[in-house]
């Protein structure tokens, strides 16, 4: 579905991402794990075309999005849903207006149909009854769920999550985990989750990519990562004594 | 020596870079006006915010400027027995200079700051990124309505400022300078042609364009969290001020 080839991203003179190659496949959830500041968000922003990499290519169903115009990119992006770290809801709009926004921009549906879709997406994320609330009235977890409902509005084929659990308490974080697991069941979905939380990553991942100092130091199924004899991988994992029981 | 030259060079490069970026943003905003009809809701909203929202304070400002103009010039004119031309002086000063320029300042402070603060807040909370990944061009969605609204509304505000300033001038002229309302307006309309007023409004359009473009530019440039929003908002207002002063001179020469 999406292939990243020899991706390099430099910011000023520091190399943030150094020659990354991997692919995101259909019906697969790829989790990118790494310490804060390692460049996970930057990687995600490259893949959805928000920033252009210094070199390398990103193929989305064969088209290299690093070499096309913003207009062409916009067409490809209609298959993308992104949940940003802070949910990025439009603060001047209600929850339902937020969810309706991509529909209003890209679909010629009438009001009735839009309202139906909005209701469907909001119930998918357990936010029924919050239609008329403003983002400022929502808790962190509700914001994330509303952001997810908006990301799902156009029924995207690829969903990207940037730190979906950041800033949430463990119980709410568990709810978001459940939602992600629920989404995994949708056929044909490609998901990429970027996180520094190991436990969460191992719980939802089909494939894990571990980033350290701009490079991929380990990649594979969760069980394979646990078996890795790379020193840093093991050090990263030791922060979590019972990781084997979770991924096993 | 070498250090300071390098510093100067870096500043100069930065200056030209910024100028280029502003011009590019302006060009992209103008070109997205082709699709204005698709974004009419936001255009209306911005027009209401800029026009209706700014009008009360603009009227207050215009009234007092008209009065103080008549007061200061009237006092001088009385000394030379020239008070008969007070209508012309108040009318021309307002329509050609003070109306457009002071309204420009007012709009820079009120509207320009609001534009930068709003877009800057959207920038730091990833709302602009969200727009872009949803395939919506922020220039089309945010800049274009603000540019159109400012270019149309600022001249309209200036018309009101001119009118109420002239009325304020008339009141002072009649009560303090001793030139009756009738002769004040006779003198004013003798010298103030439609052409003069129109040139003032043309300047106002430019000032509106400056405020909207700089407001959006600084908003999109915002980094550094909530603190950054404050910094960039201040920069936006100051830069708009400077550009209004400079453009006023060159436009005045061009349109004299
Ligand atoms: N636009 C930018 N402004 C400032 N720093 C940036 C920018 N882009 C990349 N960086 C740098 O890239 C590195 C990775 O950032 P990021 O992708 O946010 O990391 P992560 O999401 O893994 O915490 C940081 O060290 C940051 O300094
Ligand atoms: Mg990040």
Automatic annotation (TrEMBL), chain A:
PROSITE patterns hit by this protein: ABC_TRANSPORTER_1, ABC_TRANSPORTER_2
Keywords per UniProt: ATP-binding, Nucleotide-binding, Transport
ABC transporter domain mapped to chain residues: 2-238
GO molecular function: ATP binding; ATP hydrolysis activity
Protein name: ABC transporter ATP-binding protein
From TrEMBL, chain B:
Membrane topology category: Multi-pass membrane protein
A GO molecular function held by the record: phospholipid transporter activity
Transmembrane intervals: 51-71, 147-177, 197-217, 229-251
Top-rank lineage group of the source organism: Bacteria
Cellular component GO terms held in the UniProt record: ATP-binding cassette (ABC) transporter complex
Pfam family, one: MlaE
Main location: membrane
Cell compartments where the protein resides: Membrane
Sorted UniProt keywords: Membrane, Transmembrane, Transmembrane helix, Transport
NCBIfam families per UniProt: MlaE family lipid ABC transporter permease subunit (TIGR00056)
Record family assignment: Belongs to the MlaE permease family.
PANTHER family referenced in this protein's UniProt entry, alphabetically: ABC TRANSPORTER PERMEASE PROTEIN-RELATED, PROTEIN TRIGALACTOSYLDIACYLGLYCEROL 1, CHLOROPLASTIC
Protein's name according to its UniProt entry: ABC transporter permease
């Amino acid at each position: 579905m999406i292939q990243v080839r020899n991706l390099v991203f430099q910011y000023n003179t520091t190399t943030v991402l150094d020659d990354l190659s991997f692919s995101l496949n259909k019906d697969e959830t790829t989790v990118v794990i790494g310490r804060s500041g390692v460049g996970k968000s930057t990687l995600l922003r490259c893949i959805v075309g928000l920033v252009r990499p210094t070199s390398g290519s990103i193929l989305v169903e064969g088209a290299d999005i690093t070499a096309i115009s913003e207009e062409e990119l916009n067409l490809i992006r209609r298959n993308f849903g992104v949940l940003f770290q802070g949910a990025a809801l439009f603060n001047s709009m209600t929850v339902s207006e937020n969810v309706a926004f991509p529909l209003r921009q890209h679909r010629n549906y009438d009001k009735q149909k839009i309202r139906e879709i909005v209701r469907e997406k909001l119930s998918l994320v357990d936010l029924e009854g919050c239609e008329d609330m403003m983002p400022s009235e929502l808790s962190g977890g509700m914001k994330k769920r509303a952001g997810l409902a908006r990301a799902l509005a156009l029924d995207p084929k690829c969903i990207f999550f940037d730190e979906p659990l950041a800033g949430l308490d463990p119980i709410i974080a568990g709810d978001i985990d459940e939602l992600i697991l629920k989404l995994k069941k949708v056929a044909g979905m490609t998901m990429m989750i970027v996180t520094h939380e190991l436990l969460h990553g191992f719980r939802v991942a089909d494939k894990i990519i571990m980033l350290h100092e701009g490079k991929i130091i380990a990649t594979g199924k969760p069980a394979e990562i646990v078996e890795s004899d790379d020193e840093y991988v093991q050090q990263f994992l030791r922060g979590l004594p019972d990781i084997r029981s979770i991924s096993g | 020596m070498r250090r300071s030259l390098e510093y100067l060079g870096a500043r100069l490069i930065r200056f030209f870079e910024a100028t280029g970026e502003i011009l590019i943003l302006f060009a992209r905003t103008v070109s997205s006006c082709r699709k204005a009809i698709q974004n009419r809701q936001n255009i209306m909203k911005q027009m209401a915010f800029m026009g209706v929202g700014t009008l009360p304070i603009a009227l207050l400002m215009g009234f007092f400027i008209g009065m103080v103009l008549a007061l200061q010039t009237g006092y001088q004119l009385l000394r030379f027995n020239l008070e008969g031309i007070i209508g012309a002086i108040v009318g021309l000063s307002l329509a050609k200079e003070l109306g457009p320029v002071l309204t420009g300042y007012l709009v820079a402070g009120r509207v320009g700051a609001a534009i930068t603060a709003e877009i800057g807040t959207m920038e730091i909370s990833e709302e602009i990124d969200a727009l872009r990944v949803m395939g919506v061009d922020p220039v089309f969605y945010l800049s274009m309505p603000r540019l159109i609204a400012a270019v149309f509304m600022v001249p309209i505000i200036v018309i009101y400022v001119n009118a109420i300033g002239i009325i304020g001038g008339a009141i002072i002229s009649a009560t303090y300078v001793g030139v009756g309302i009738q002769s004040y307006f006779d003198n004013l309309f003798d010298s103030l042609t439609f052409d003069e007023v129109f040139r003032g409004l043309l300047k106002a359009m430019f000032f509106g364009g400056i405020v909207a473009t700089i407001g959006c530019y600084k908003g999109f440039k915002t980094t550094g969290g909530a603190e950054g929003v404050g910094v960039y908002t201040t920069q936006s207002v100051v830069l708009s001020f400077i550009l209004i002063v400079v453009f006023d001179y060159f436009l005045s020469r061009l349109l004299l």
